[in-house]
Design goal:
Blueprint lengths: L1 H29 L7 H19 L4 H29 L25 H10 L2 H11 L4 H8 L3 H32 L1
Helix pairs in contact: 1-2, 1-3, 2-3, 4-7, 5-7, 6-7
Amino acid sequence: MANLFNREKRHFEAFIQRHRPSLLAVARRLCARGALDPEDLVQEAFERALPEFGHLKDRTEAACAAWLCTTMTNRFLDHCRRQRTESRGLPHLALVQDLPVTGDGDQENWELVGNDAFQAAIEQLKPHLRDAYKLHAEGRRYQAIAEHFNVPVGTVGSWLTLARRDLRELLLPSVAVARERGVQS
């Protein structure tokens, strides 16, 4: 059994050695604008190839190269779509501190809200909104959060928007109290 595994491993490593140079050349052209590292893109293509290797090793070299190139191009397009979706959503996904709350466009003084009040407000969110907000605050991307909850990426964006809205509503009284104290001092 170990010999079979070692033989398959050697075959896959040889497969990588044969296809990596041409795949890397294509990846460099795709990533010319610097949005993604060509090495990462090639790695993702080989990660996709590993579970399919049983089928790929029976194909011709040209068919394997075409499969790898198509897979890598699709991964690149997925990254581009994700980046475009996230950049379109940025104006709507600003941090709570950056959003105007009043109708006259004035910024509230979110820095007046203490960490304890902020954490308490987060805990008051509905569970799915709270969990999504915490994951995003930890630095997780929308796609990772969507996979965690097994929901579409758009749902994650909606949840985060709702969480921010609810946080503003929960924190407005704290801002008003803090402002009032500041005026009286």
